[in-house]
Amino acid sequence: MSEIFEAGQSVTLNQILENKEWRVYQQNKLEQQFPNKTIVSVKLNIPGEIKQSPAIELIFKTGVNILDRVYDDVTLAKESYITRITGPETFYVIDASLRDTKTLAIEFEEASKLGRLFDVDVMSTEDQGHQLSRTELGFDVRRCFVCGEPAKVCARTQKHAKAEMIDTLNTLYDEIEASN
Q: What InterPro entries does the database record attribute to this sequence (predicted)?
């Protein structure tokens, strides 16, 4: 079995918080540059202190390739794959409504265990600071990539040991690598 965190570098909480500020800046810049369009910000939900490695990059690129097809007909611009110490990210500028774009994002996130690893945030000037929730759109809450139960419950109760989450990620990576 592979080890997805091999050759990865640990990040600090401060680096994660600084990256969050960077992401918000990028999102705001895109909203200003493309008013009345929908902005999609894509990153991974990877547990632990290592957020970037060759295996994590492959997982991300595989998912983004799927998202490229999902958003193919409505993508105006795409900020290419961005390598950050806190993990890979990308941004799309979409010519579709916030609701339609968010629905496609949720469908991608729910389609497989791979999708459950992704955090696809959708925003636009039309939302005026209000993020559409999954339940507002008729979807279930986000599911845990290990067991499929509500992710917030698993996170809050720390249901899964770190080793169990890593094993699940390694198995997913092996499946992706085998299919390439």
A: CitX (IPR005551)
**CATH superfamily of the domain spanning 13-179:** ACT-like. Chain A, domain 2 (3.30.70.1150)
Token pair for 53: 């490695």
Q: For residue 59, give the nearest of 176, 143, 145 by alpha carbon.
A: 176
Beta strands across the sheet bearing 75-82: 75-82, 89-94, 38-44, 118-124
Q: What percent of the chain stands above pLDDT 70?
A: 96
- Rounded to an integer, what distance in angstroms lies between the CA atom of residue 51 and that of residue 28? 24
Q: pTM for the full model?
A: 0.89
What ranges make up the beta strands (E) of the chain? 38-44, 75-82, 89-94, 118-124
